[in-house]
Design goal:
The chain is globular. It is of the alpha/beta class. The N and C termini lie far apart (about 45 Å). It has a 7-stranded mixed β-sheet, sandwiched between helices. The protein contains 6 helices and 7 strands. It binds S-adenosylmethionine. S-adenosylmethionine (SAM) binds next to α3 and β2. S-adenosylmethionine binds next to α3 and β2.
């Protein structure tokens, strides 16, 4: 199976995967900044991790859903990708022992701040934290009745304010896919 067919398979199974635009953007970043170690929060079936990885770029990726983790294992083997899969809840996982050039946050949106706070210590000097879907389809509180969606919008809003106001990090905002941020440490 080719990558394009794997992507179609993910979409058929209603697996939320990275947009082509965001993928191209991050693949360019990987090349430009010569990213050798990449950590991803939120594997799903491994589509983005497999696309980010190469002989030069090793990807560690964390997923807490066992069914998705097992699917990802199948596809990482199929593509012989330079990807290490970790079955764990990224909110509490403590097994990492290296530093990363790029940390890609693509797990539950309500937890972006938790992921950011927890994983920033694994960033190499000059490394980047990249968040996907930061606009969350521009959904606002008044457009949903769901309590959990409202909660997610609220938490994502607070996280965006944090990115805008923190003095320790500098964030660039890109209108790519559903919104991508690239954050680097300045202090
Ligand atoms: N990065 C994938 C891609 O583009 O191919 C898509 C990831 S999907 C948007 C988000 C994934 O994060 C889901 O599979 C979900 O189960 C996982 N996830 C959400 N919260 C998590 C957590 N706390 N720990 C580990 N995985 C989590």
């Amino acid at each position: 199976m080719k990558l394009s067919e794997f992507k179609a398979y993910c979409l058929e199974n209603k697996i939320p995967i990275i947009t082509d635009e965001a993928l191209n953007f991050i693949q360019e970043l990987i090349k430009e900044k010569d990213v050798k170690n990449l950590l991803e929060i939120g594997t799903a079936y491994g589509y983005s991790a497999i696309c980010f990885s190469s002989e030069r770029t090793q990807v560690d990726t964390i997923e807490y859903d066992e069914v998705r983790y097992n699917e990802a294992k199948k596809w990482v083997n199929h593509f012989n990708a330079n990807v290490n899969l970790i079955l764990a809840d990224a909110k509490i996982y403590e097994g990492l022992n290296k530093q990363y050039d790029l940390i890609f946050i693509d797990g539950a949106k309500a937890s972006y701040q938790v992921f950011f706070d927890k994983y920033q210590k694994y960033l190499k000097p000059g490394g980047m934290i990249v968040c996907d879907n930061i606009n969350f389809h521009n959904l606002t509180m008044d457009k949903t009745r769901s309590r959990s969606t409202k909660n997610m919008i609220k938490k994502l809003g607070l996280f965006k304010t944090f990115l805008e106001t923190t003095e320790d990090f500098l964030t660039e905002w890109y209108d790519i896919g559903d919104g991508v941020t690239v954050t680097t440490r300045v202090k």
